[in-house]
Amino acid sequence: MDVGDKFPDFVLKDENGEEFDSKNLEGIRYVIYFYPKDNTSGCTREAEAFSENFPRFMMRNIPVIGVSKDSVASHRKFIDGKNLKIKLLSDPDHVLLEAAGAWGTKVMYGKETTGTIRSTFIVGKDGTVEAAWKKVKVDGHVDKVLEKALSLAKNA
After folding, report:
1. In the CATH hierarchy, which top-level class contains the domain 11-154?
2. Confidence of residue 105 (pLDDT cuts 50, 70, 90)
3. Residues noted as catalytic
4. Distances (CA, A) of 101 to 15, 47, 77
5. What's residue 61's pLDDT?
C-alpha cells in the first residue's frame, strides 16, 4: 500500500468478538496500524502512545484501529490490562495484513522470519491511502502520525 492506493475492504472481529466492517468507515478518515504481538514491549509502547493521543485524534473524528494476528481474547486482555482506548482487530489468517503489505519477510535478531511488518496508514474519507509508514520504529512514531493526520484534517 502506498499513498493514492485504495485501502482494501475488510471485515474482522474486534476485541469484543463483534464483526467490524470497514464499510462503516466510509466518509471517515482513520488511522489503521499493524503490529506484531499484544503485550510485547514495542507493541505496548505503540498502543499506549496511540491511546494517550486518542482524544487528539478524536477531536478531528479520526478513529485509530490496531490490527494483529492475535486472538480476540488476547486483544481484550491487552486493552483491559493496559487501559487502551483504541479499537483492536484480530486477523489470525493475516488476510488484511497481507492485502495491506504488512505481512512478509523481515529480519529479527539477525534471523530471517515471516510475520507482521509494523506499518501505519492514514486512510482518507474516500478510502484511499493518504499517508503510509512502513517498517515503523515505535519511538516518536505516533507523534508523526498525529501531526500528519491533523494537517490532513485541517486541509480537508
Report:
1. alpha beta
2. confident
3. 43
4. 23, 20, 27
5. 94
Residues in the chain: 156
Report strand pairing: 64-68 vs 87-90: parallel
- Helices and strands, number each (H, E), in the chain: 5, 9
Query: Strand 64-68 and strand 129-134: pairing?
Result: unpaired
User: Given the C-alpha cell 505516533, which residue does it identify?
Assistant: 142
Name the residue among 88, 76, 89 with its Cα closest to residue 11: 89
Describe the crossing of helices 41-52 and 141-154 by its angle, rounded to 10 degrees.
30
**Tens of pLDDT along 30-87?**
999 999 999 999 999 999 999 999 999 999 999 999 999 999 999 999 999 999 999 9
